[in-house]
Design a protein that fits this description.
It is a single chain. This protein is of the alpha+beta class. 34% of the residues lie in helices and 24% in strands. The chain has 7 helices and 8 strands, in the order H-E-E-H-H-E-H-E-E-H-H-E-H-E-E. Strands 4-5-3-6 form a 4-stranded antiparallel sheet. Strands 1-2 form a two-stranded antiparallel sheet. A hairpin with a 5-residue loop joins strand 4 and strand 5. Helix 4 packs across helix 5.
């Protein structure tokens, strides 16, 4: 399991003898076991491991349910790091607080059924202010390390009212990176999230799949569709002096060549 991945809080124990495993299940499994197994003060819940065929069937069922849901909620946990996890070792208190606040915001937003988790767009936080869109793109291309990887968006959000002497707007420290393929986005997240080798141990990127608003996207699409205008070609005059032109948007506000 990658260090940055969320701990699933489960594991496996294999016995040499089948009889011993059956005895363990008999005494330690169920809602009210005869004997409780404790670890760090917590009770462990014991059950028999599933066969490979059973696991495959569950995966298929889970995939079907995920597709029906359409909100990709299973991706909301990607990049999650909490206090006590191995990935949290070396993180500053400030960065841990940033992650906690981000998690709380996501939970609150996901209560809205119109909010879904994008499977190709990443939200990137804790970006050093000197980093450019191009540099951010290079970081993620390198993280994926696949020639087939296509990044369709690499954008750092900026305060347009504040610019430097060079005329560059001030970075807000976060941005978005979009991929054509989900697997590339997932690989990029896992290889860049909390990685101290990118911008140093004190400026680790906080990566998560972006939350999108279904209604807002529908409104945006309708606006785009409305702005699209039909173009048609006409011929003015006749004979050798014919003039060909394409009219766009009708007479009012139209353009022609």
């Amino acid at each position: 399991m990658p260090e940055n991945a969320a701990h699933k809080r489960s594991g496996f124990v294999q016995f040499v003898n089948k009889e011993d495993s059956e005895k363990c299940l008999e005494r330690c499994s169920g809602e009210t076991p005869k004997e409780k197994i404790l670890s760090g003060g917590r009770q462990l819940f014991v059950s028999a491991a599933l066969s490979r065929e059973q696991v495959d069937n569950l995966k298929s069922s889970k995939t079907e349910n995920t597709n029906k849901d359409g909100r990709n909620l299973h991706l909301a946990r990607e990049g999650l790091i909490r206090v006590g996890m191995k990935a949290a070792e070396g993180l500053s208190k400030s960065d841990l607080n940033k992650r906690l606040k981000a998690e709380m915001r996501r939970r609150q937003k996901l209560k809205d059924p119109n909010i879904f988790v994008s499977d190709t767009r990443l939200c990137v936080q804790n970006i050093p202010t000197h980093v450019t869109d191009k540099q951010l793109k290079e970081v993620f291309l390198k993280a994926v390390n696949d020639k087939k990887c296509v990044i369709t968006e690499s954008r750092i959000m900026r305060d347009m009212s504040r610019t430097s002497a060079q005329g560059v707007s001030r970075s807000l420290g976060y941005g978005f990176v979009s991929f054509q393929e989900h697997q590339h986005a997932l690989t990029a997240l896992r290889n860049t999230n909390n990685n101290p080798d990118i911008f140093g141990p004190t400026k680790r990127l906080i990566i998560e799949f972006s939350l999108e608003n279904k209604k807002a996207l529908e409104v945006k699409q309708k606006r785009l569709d409305k702005s699209k205008v039909s173009c048609f070609t006409v011929i003015i005059g006749g004979g050798h002096g014919d003039v060909y032109g394409s009219f766009s948007g009708g007479i009012r506000g139209g353009c022609y060549f």
